[in-house]
Amino acid sequence: MKISREEVEHVAHLARLHLSDGELQKMTMQLDTILSYFEKLEELDTRGLPPTTHVFSVSNAFRDDEVMTSLSRQEALACSPQHTEEMFQVPRII
Amino acid sequence: MNLFELTIAEAMEKMTEGEITSVDLTQNCLERIDRVEGEVRAFITLDREGALQGAREADLRRQAGKGGLICGIPLTIKDLLCTKGMKTTCGSKILENFIPPYDATVVARVKEQGGVLLGKVAMDEFAMGSTSESCAFGVPQNPWKKGYVAGGSSGGSAAAVAAGECLASLGSDTGGSIRQPASLCGLVGMKPTYGRVSRYGLVAFASSLDQVGPLCRDVRDCAVMMNVIGGYDPKDSTSVRREMPDYTSFLVEGVRGLRVGIPREYFVEGLDPEVEKVVMQGVELLRQAGAEIVDVSLPHTEYCVAVYYLIAPAEASSNLARYDGVHYGMRDMHADSLLAMYKDTRSAGFGAEVKRRILIGTYALSSGYYDAYYKKASQARTMILRDFQKAYETCDVLISPVTPTPAWRLGENVDDPLSVYLSDILTISANLAGVPGMSVPGGFSRDGLPIGIQLQGPHFREDTLLQVAYTLERGLGVARHPKIL
Question: If you measure CA to CA, which chain A residue comes closest to B241?
Answer without folding.
Answer: A58
